[in-house]
Amino acid sequence: MIFINACMRGKDSRTLKLARSIIRGQEAETINLSDLDLKPYTEKNNPTNKPIDQKFVRLAKKIAKCDGLVIAAPFWDMSFPSILKVFLEKLSIADVMFEDNGKTCSGIAKCPFMFFITTRGMYIPDGSDLEQATPYLKALCSLWGIKEFDCVSAYNLDYLSEKEVEDRLQKAIEVGKLKLNNLL
């Protein structure tokens, strides 16, 4: 399993604490996005104008064939931190994650599932139109050919007492462990 850490607050991140509790005991290779030199594509720096960085080709190949992908990212600006979007764009490589027959794209990744772990400070429950991370990640699974997607969240954390936050996180840990075990 590969664990993508897109929690930019480090040890202070509630999302990271939640994710670590859920995946504890699982064998997972961690990719910390804050350790990568990620820059968004621009007119001068995009794969149509120059060769794709081989570091990302290797990562994409590794993720395409891994036995599961877990992503931890907090709710930021109605979705997730932009560093995760940049990373996912760099992984979306034709003939690694999907193939293009000139009329449409079809996923070719062998990774069986993506599991998304998140926390939200605001009262934005799963399925809300205000939460756009999950729809994007589901669409990406479709593009890449990943068959299963699930997520777990704890929300409204900025407006609860410390005890209520801990209770909400504990419930999310229990639900998350069950969901991850169902995917494995």
Describe the 3D structure.
36% of the residues lie in helices and 18% in strands. The chain has 184 residues and is α/β, with parallel strands linked by helices. Strand 4 (98-100) and strand 5 form a beta hairpin. The longest helix is centred in the last third of the chain and has 22 residues, at 162-183. The protein starts with a strand and ends with a helix. The model has no long low-confidence stretch (mean pLDDT 95).
In short:
By secondary structure, the protein is α/β, with parallel strands linked by helices. 36% of the residues lie in helices and 18% in strands.
Q: What features would you highlight for this structure?
A:
18% strand, 5 helices, 184 residues, two-stranded antiparallel sheet, alpha/beta
